[in-house]
Request: fold
Amino acid sequence: MNKSLQIRSYCQIKNGIISHNGKVVFEHPLTDFEPFIKAAYKNFETDYPKFFKMDNLSKLAFMAAETVLSDKAVEEKNMAIVLSNRASSLDTDRKYQESIADEDNFYPSPAVFVYTLPNICIGEISIRHKLHSENSFFIFDAFNADYLKDYADGLLQNEKAEEVLCGWVDFDDGRYEAFLYIVSETGNHPHTAEEITRLYLTP
Reply:
């Protein structure tokens, strides 16, 4: 069954700014990730203590999801999650490697090891929003709107989900960027690769 699919909400996080549907909802004078993301957490009065134990990739994905899902309850929705990035979990992998590199002080940290898979951030979002549906995480050299569009279309056309949370969450060596959007049967933007790319590239 062919459905007319739309983008009903989207958000971006980059350079100390969080925007939702094209409007800046939070901006911080310090663009360094750690002070910025902690300030964002406090600004939105997020009540989720586990946030502070997450790795940086999961914190980035978590806050992006908090933003894009803020306009509608999703707990009863069958919402799939399809995310992607360039660096996988490389930033956390380096930290884990450091924790086991010193033979005289060998202590592999379980708290760090938990986050040495990129799709763990999907788990954090799923726990927070009580999502139990399909999920995937893909690694690309660059943002791939065509692949995300086709994958989300397949999930919705085959009724594997009612909505899909899609996008890009990338963190590596202090550089961060998130772009998430919700694909649904209702919305203000056509679900096309061209429109996804346009929204992604819009400052």
The chain has one domain: 6-201. The longest strand covers residues 163-172. DSSP finds seven helices and eight strands in the chain. The beta strands are 6-14, 17-20, 23-27, 79-85, 135-139, 163-172, 175-184, 189-190.
